[in-house]
Amino acid sequence: MPVRVALVQVGITDEEPVAARVDRVLATTAEVATDHDLLVLPELWPIGAFAVDLVAPHAQPADGPLVRALAGVAADAGAWLFGGSFPECVTGPDGVLRHYNTQVVLAPDGSVAATYRKVHLFGFNGGETTVMSSGEALAVIDSPLGRTGLATCYDLRFPELFRQLVDAGAEAFVLPAGWPERRQVHWQVLARARAVEDQAYVLACNEAGTHAGVPMAGLSMVVDPQGEVLAEAGPGEEVLSVEVDPTRVAAWRGAFPALDDRRMG
Asked: Among residues 33, 118, 101, 116, which one has the least CA distance to residue 70?
């Protein structure tokens, strides 16, 4: 049975206050959710993926007000909500406060179905590597897409992560991102490559707009298991809506069983 999917490509600017953006995006998502089975938001959409100076001031625990609000949207609509990522704050057993780039998934009853702390942090000698800690665990859940693996933005450049998700049963990947315009070709090529090599759907939801001096690429997309782009957004704020047939994964893997021929890794 087809799954009605919406990728909410949020436009992010420095001029819009964080609280106003959160309210606006929650309202938009609630409106869109009434006509869809599954929704996806981008990476760090409350603050912007490159606004590293806003991580600590706007960090919340995993049971904080943002996640509770997202849970309310999912429950009211009876829809799956892949809520993008947010800056999570956690005080560890050692008493040290750490921040993570944490993705959260809400089930149709409003419960938290999964969280995933981004493993590959972007920044080289700066950026989120200076203010966040890396996650260490992968996440694969059952969703209307079938077994669904979670990844975030820069993770897209590391195919070994996606192969581990496939080994855990993944038939689809959901990837919230804050990918910049200057590397938009990489975005388009890598999203399709992950779909082709893993014979899986890729739902990649990016940011639009310009914040922290960085123009974002937009171009959110849904890619099928053969690498065909089923739908692609433009560069601006947009809701991308498409129907996905999860049965196509097993059909293609059966017709072209390339994954069975793996010899390394």
From this structure: 33
Residue 15's H or E segment, with its range, is: none
Q: Is 153 a catalytic residue?
A: yes
Note if 43 is an active site residue: yes
Please identify which residue in the block is written with the tokens 């704050």: 89
Q: Distances in Å between the alpha carbon of 193 and those of 4, 107, 129, 165, 223?
A: 23, 29, 26, 15, 10
End-to-end CA distance of the chain: 33
Burial (CB < 10 A; 0-12, 13-18, 19+), residue 124, is exposed
The structural domains of the chain, with segments of one domain joined by +, span 3-256
Level-2 CATH architecture, domain 3-256: 4-Layer Sandwich (3.60)
pLDDT of residue 125: 73
pLDDT score of 265: 72
Tokens at 2, concatenated: 């087809």
31 flagged as catalytic = no
Average pLDDT of the segment spanning 4-29:
98
